[in-house]
Amino acid sequence: MANPSLQQGKQRPQGPGVPDIIGQIHDRYPQLRPAEQAVADFVLADVQAAVYAANSDIAARAGVSAPTVTRFCRAIGCRGVRDFKLQLARSLVVGDIYLEAANSAAAEAPPEAAQPSYVRSILTEARRAIDEVERQLDPGALGRAAEILASARRIVVLGVGGSSAAMADEAHNRLFRYGLTVTATGDIYLARMIAASLHEGDAVIAISATGRTREVIEVVTLARHYRARTIAITVPGSALAAAAEVPLTVQIGEYPDTLTPSASRIGFLTLLDLLAAATGYRIGAPARETLRRIKYNVLARGDGSVLEPLGD
To answer: Are 221 and 243 in contact (CB under 8 A)?
Structure first.
């Protein structure tokens, strides 16, 4: 009878990143035999070494026999040692930083009384991101973008995945308070349908941390085809920056700690704050009146004794 693990290995899809062999090891670890767990421990402790080590070296460093290494490979869904190493090498595509950070976290943990190092790094990177926005900001582009939004019949904000989708919601939250008609979406198909319904006088804000997402670029191109105005919040030199009528861009290097927030997110949020404020100033008195109405009705539900954030 054929080995079920071998059959599983033959049937699984092939391609970069499929399957996630590191994830497979973690998920199947409790079901492995003790000797196989020893192999898993060695692999997870030093993935680079496991990729390049010979079968006999893996066995020696894990303190097991060579056949045990083969059984381990099959137990996690691989056809054998060679297939396992191929999948393991693919796992390094995302970068050693994710693996190294996990192995060194315990050693770097600070005493309870000390301030964790990540507190300083996060605050430092946030300040650096804001400084970079100030240094790289194009005031002319900011003014043109604000003018587009202030006079727009309706505004569509698009952000797909992760922080881009969250920032699209934040853009909606900031702009509707000025009396503007705003729709935010992270659904690329809905965005495409909305773009096809746009006309002259409408506007699109596209947010992308990479500026490479093909579907977002296509929506911006489609919106321009129907004569809508387009603004991008993204990185300079990207395809999205080139596709939009008015790009608002900032390039911020990332801090090499996988557990801390992306520094570029702070930069993009700062750009969004600047764009919203510039739009409010362009609209002027009507924006202030809409904000007054909102704040009056929000405070009317409480005791009104505490001054809440004016923009919320």
So the answer is: yes
Q: Pick from 123, 178, 184: which is nearest to 155 by CA?
A: 184
> Across the beta sheet with 246-249, what order do the strands follow?
182-185, 155-159, 203-207, 229-234, 246-249
Task: Decide which of 3.60.70.12, 1.10.10.10, 1.50.10.10, 3.40.50.2000 is the CATH code for 4-106.
Answer: 1.10.10.10
- H or E stretch including 264? helix 263-283
Largest CA distance in the chain: 80
- Residues 94-125 have pLDDT tens digits of 555 556 545 554 445 555 556 787 788 888 88
Say how far apart CA 258 and CA 97 lie, in whole Å.
7
- pTM for this one? 0.70
Q: Which CATH number fits domain 119-299: 3.30.1390.20, 3.40.50.10490, 3.90.1170.50, 3.40.50.720?
A: 3.40.50.10490
* pLDDT tens-place string over residues 174-222: 999 999 999 999 999 999 999 999 999 999 999 999 999 999 999 999 9
Give the residue ranges of the chain where pLDDT is below 70.
1-19, 93-114, 255-261, 299-312
Phi/psi for 231 (5° steps) reads -130, 140
Other Cβ atoms within 10 Å of 44 Cβ, number: 16
> Which H or E run contains 182?
strand 182-185
Q: Cβ–Cβ contacts within 10 Å for residue 119, how many?
A: 12
